[in-house]
């Protein structure tokens, strides 16, 4: 298997899609949805079903962003423990969080049944298990908290894993599916009756008003409402202080012996998440984990290596067939931000989905559709995007934003990675100092070099090289760029500025397939 294929997710390689084309020019619709992942497509579909004309604009190809990098767990068990939610949001708030997650799973099930989508949807149990005595004590507390908020949870000692554990929280009636098959089917049915999907169309500016205007690199769309269903919204400075970007990793391999279908989570820190998926008649195991702050580590390949070793040591699998990474946006207080954006009248946001993007992405579509249509939604107040919970997540809020301030200054004062172009190996990126200015340099395997400014176009922090994904990553708010400076992940909307190098540095011809 080639390196190019192994760095694609299991979903991307098993469900090819069709091209929807770019925005052909200026147009007018009722609602513009920015972002073609699960939140964007769900919102667009529910709005179309309610009679709205909707245009979805996606910066890249449909479902190649974070939805394409998911491990697709449909669960009521959130990354934030229910014991924490009970403390921070009270019993009513924690119960609403649980109920909203259940409503999201049932919304997906309803759409699948309504449209007859073949995506392997399956109801399965979830196991959150402990392997040490300290993990077991915390787990028992979470079992009681889960029961208190109304989940069908219980403590069990038997877990269908090929290694012993001390016990587990078992949660009934969770689900798994093939997210790309589900969403491609949704996209096919979305187009028509005044609704559109435009790929490779980058939104660069939102002008809130009556009407709103979304300026893209292919034209301007006028609409009554705008939904930002991206990983992180465009240039919303205050909201970004409540969002913390992390990288997460996943590997997949064919199973050599059966494993009971289910969702499995260990209690390590960071934890591992495990599930099965049948692809073309072959059962695969998917294992994710090894989370870390975006841009905080250059040797990201070690996380893939650790995940592969964990998988092969514990499970009966063949050779690793796929490995990929994704962007996880952690919210300050443990719940997603869904609703009207600060200081806006008709601009709506959906972000901070943590590790439960499939359920919260679907929930975002449900909440935002109701709000745009002027209907009451029982969960809207809980997920209000403008909320500030002083108590909840205060420690993380201070620490994360202090880290942003530190990185902004420290990276400007730090020494460059290298002094000479000759120190940049093929396939590698380094920060050099050229004529007294720092330059981010990437060398292709064929020898040609590309130089860009290391200054992130979002808020000016300096990017760091990511060796496993061959990207420039910003440690402040999670923007990511290709080796040649093209935007891969927001909140940035502008590419890194090009920088000139001496002619001899660019003499070699580029080789095919270098840039990912």
From TrEMBL:
SUPFAM superfamilies: FAD/NAD(P)-binding domain, ISP domain
GO MF: oxidoreductase activity
Record keywords, A-Z: 2Fe-2S, Disulfide bond, Iron, Iron-sulfur, Metal-binding, Oxidoreductase
Chain ranges of the Rieske domain: 416-502
Region (Disordered): 495-516
EC number: 1.-.-.-
PANTHER family in alphabetical order: RIESKE 2FE-2S IRON-SULFUR PROTEIN YHFW-RELATED (PTHR13847:SF274), SARCOSINE DEHYDROGENASE-RELATED (PTHR13847)
Name of the protein in question: FAD-dependent oxidoreductase
Organism: Hyalangium rubrum
